[in-house]
Design a protein that fits this description.
The chain is an alpha/beta fold. About 35% of the residues lie in helices and about 20% in strands. β5, α4 and β6 form a beta-alpha-beta unit.
């Protein structure tokens, strides 16, 4: 997989992609992540990439020309199955979408800034508009980092045990059940006996029941 990210603050993304699972995925050659500085396509020598809002109002908007220049250059080199704009008014990022995006070969992420991007860019290029929650960030970079992490960990060969991702919360519209490890007793708290029984069918049944109960308590909307 190749992921190209268009941003006016690439330094915000350098660290998240230089560590942990995403770094290991890059080292294994399972994903390429390329950061593209939007100001490299600036309108003038002053590095202008934004302008005032037509019709008046506070804040600035990213102009279409620099964004279009980057997208056109990238698409001239290879086909992209998706161009994602990270924006608070997009659809909420959920696990099924992460699963679908993980099957793609080439992906562009566009990070908004200031008040966002000119609507014509969204109309012309964007295939997916994604929000990571009902709140506003200073830019799309942190949202892009979240999306990349959620997608890359699903790529075959990234995790040591590929079944691990399939057992995560939301994969089957359920939250994950409680998890335990050694020691079997800690500060008077004992691991449920069923988990020590070695009876795999009964253990799986218990885990499913616990997942249902936890989902009903914390996220009943998932069961609906």
């Amino acid at each position: 997989m190749r992921i190209d990210i268009i941003t006016c603050q690439p330094e915000l993304l350098a660290s998240p992609f230089a560590h942990s699972i995403v770094r290991r995925a890059q080292d294994k050659g399972l994903v390429e992540i390329h950061l593209h500085q939007l100001r490299d396509k600036a309108l003038n020598k002053h590095g202008q990439i934004d302008d005032a809002v037509f019709g008046g109002g506070a804040g600035m908007v990213l102009r279409p020309e620099p964004i279009a220049a980057w997208i056109d250059e990238l698409r001239a080199a290879r086909p992209y199955e998706a161009i994602v704009y990270l924006t608070p008014d997009g659809g909420t990022l959920r696990q099924p979408l992460c699963n679908r995006l993980s099957l793609l070969s080439n992906l562009i992420l566009l990070c908004g800034h200031y008040k966002g991007v000119d609507q014509r860019i969204r109309d012309e290029y964007v295939t997916h508009e994604i929000s990571v929650g009902d709140y506003v960030l200073s830019g799309g970079e942190l949202a892009a980092a979240v999306l990349v992490d959620a997608v890359v960990r699903l790529l075959p060969g990234v995790l040591g045990n590929e079944e691990s991702a399939l057992a995560d919360s939301f994969q089957d519209d359920l939250l994950a059940p409680p998890l335990y490890t050694r020691p079997a007793e800690w500060r008077g708290r004992i691991v449920p006996e069923i988990l020590l029984s070695g009876n795999t069918p009964k253990i799986e049944e218990w885990r499913h029941e616990q997942a249902l109960a936890r989902t009903q308590e914390r996220r009943p909307d998932l069961l609906a």
